[in-house]
Design brief:
Low-confidence stretches: none
CATH architecture of the domain at 5-124: Sandwich
Oligomer: single chain
CATH topology of the domain at 5-124: Jelly Rolls
Mean pLDDT: 91
Largest sheet: 4 strands, antiparallel
Radius of gyration: 18 Å
Strand order of the largest sheet: 1-8-3-6
Length: 199
């Protein structure tokens, strides 16, 4: 049976970090669970334990927490060809402080904790993938924190556009504002300033 486009997408993603044989990749594919959710539905709610690593094949989700003033704070977006997880919750069976919610109708694969353990036994090379994949996620989170502390809103907006090309046209402006840590009104000014610079 020929692989689907979504299977080709995740196989290409895996190969960026680890070289699996055809048989090893085929075994990996048997452990993937294919799922979909509608806009505003959740992959994970705050207080739940994250029991899966998710790979987005179509759509977009946001990773968020709620601050002491009950404001939503967006840590990251996950679009096509990207993984999303609360790693601390996943590895330590600890209730998550975050929630992962669909912004668009979303299709994805998920890989369970037990499937990871099986892969480590049957496909030892897969451990290289998980180490690199999670390490890159940790580095990206660290960089995001540093950017929020040291960069201006204009600089953070430019980084957002570089990191998520085209996403601004797919999601509400208020979500971009939450990601940047600015008000929707200030977000409008940022967009206006950026557009003026391009014209």
């Amino acid at each position: 049976m020929l692989p689907t486009l979504h299977e080709e997408l995740i196989a290409s993603n895996i190969s960026r970090y680890s070289s699996l044989s055809t048989a090893e990749m085929a075994y990996f594919m048997t452990l993937l669970e294919t799922r979909s959710i509608r806009k505003k539905e959740y992959l994970l709610r705050a207080g739940e334990v994250c029991r899966y690593d998710y790979f987005i094949t179509k759509g977009c989700v946001k990773v968020c927490f709620t601050d002491e003033k009950e404001n939503e704070r967006i840590m990251k977006f996950a679009t096509e060809n990207s993984w999303v997880i609360d790693l601390e919750s996943f590895l330590n069976n600890k209730p998550s402080s975050f929630y992962i919610q669909a912004i668009e109708d979303t299709e994805y694969f998920r890989l369970s904790q037990s499937s990871y353990r099986l892969l480590y036994k049957v496909v030892p090379q897969f451990e290289k993938f998980s180490i690199e994949h999670w390490r890159n996620g940790f580095i990206a989170l660290h960089q995001r924190i540093m950017q929020n502390l040291s960069m201006s809103a204009e600089e953070r907006y430019q980084l957002f556009k570089n990191k998520y090309p085209g996403l601004e046209q797919r999601i509400p402006q208020k979500l971009v504002a939450s990601y940047l840590g600015v008000t929707p009104e200030f977000m409008g000014k940022l967009r206006g300033k950026y557009t003026a610079q391009l014209s």
